[in-house]
Amino acid sequence: MPEFRNRSYAAFLFDMDGTLLDSSAVVDRVWGSWAIRHGIDVATLLAKVHGVRSEDTIRRFAGTTLDVAKENQWILDAEVRDVDGVVGLDGVHAFIAALDPGTWAVVTSASRVLAEARLRAANLPIPEVLITAEDVQRGKPDPQGFLLGAQRLGVRIDECLVFEDSPAGVAAAKAAGADVAIVGGRVPGTEGNFVLANYGA
After folding, report:
1. What are phi and psi of 3, to 5 degrees?
2. Measured between alpha carbons, how far is 48 from 195 in angstroms, rounded to an integer?
3. Which of 123, 163, 186, 190 sits most deeply, having the most CB atoms within 10 A of its CB?
4. Are 134 and 111 contacting, i.e. CB atoms less than 8 angstroms apart?
């Protein structure tokens, strides 16, 4: 069983962007460009884009005037092409390498093709269980993705530790009933949760 901070868990469930790897430069470039194209304030959009499915962000900011499927494909194509600057977080490679492949999964709001492209760019393994945007009907903050990840690993969600970096992801993990480790500084009010500076800490 994997251990974290002297506690054993049945499995670890990782978000991807901001949790296993840093893709912020790509997100800023692609989503910033999309916002400018449609007259949307870049700073406002970038503050809300993390941790949620791209189609949900498009619906939130585009209103009824844009074709969500078409815009989502534009975003996906641009993000898959652009992996410049996508890197693993400090200490994450050794942390993942020490885990049994059957005891961890990635639960991301990204599409499968984008998730695989970014994991490869960061030199991280594609997990045996990879839950992506296509696998769920409702994205984070809904708990469906984490519940599905635990189910496919054959463990109970309340025996899992979720690693997350966004408010939407933390809300999803808590709603699912998992323990949560916070990575980075995007989630306010995390007193009482694990806070990781990096995976070597």
Report:
1. -120, 145
2. 21
3. 163
4. yes
- Which residues are part of the catalytic machinery? 15, 17
Residue 179 near residue 160 (C-beta atoms within 8 A): yes
CA 20 to each of CA 41, 123, 183, 195: distance values in angstroms, whole numbers, following the listed order: 28, 11, 9, 14
Cα(52)–Cα(120) distance, integer angstroms:
21
CATH number of 3-23+85-196: 3.40.50.1000
- Extract the tokens encoding 38: 């449609």
User: Is there a contact between 193 and 4 (Cβ–Cβ < 8 Å)?
Assistant: no
Residues 6+ apart with CB under 8 A from 74: 34
Least Cα distance to 46 among 37, 55, 35 occurs for 35
Mean pLDDT of 67-93: 94
Residue 85 has pLDDT above 90, yes or no: yes
User: Of 6 and 19, which is predicted with more confidence?
Assistant: 19
Quick one: tokens of 175? 């709603």
Q: Which residue has the higher pLDDT, 19 or 194?
A: 19
What SS3 state is found at 147? helix
Closest CA to 135 of 146, 127, 123, 122: 146
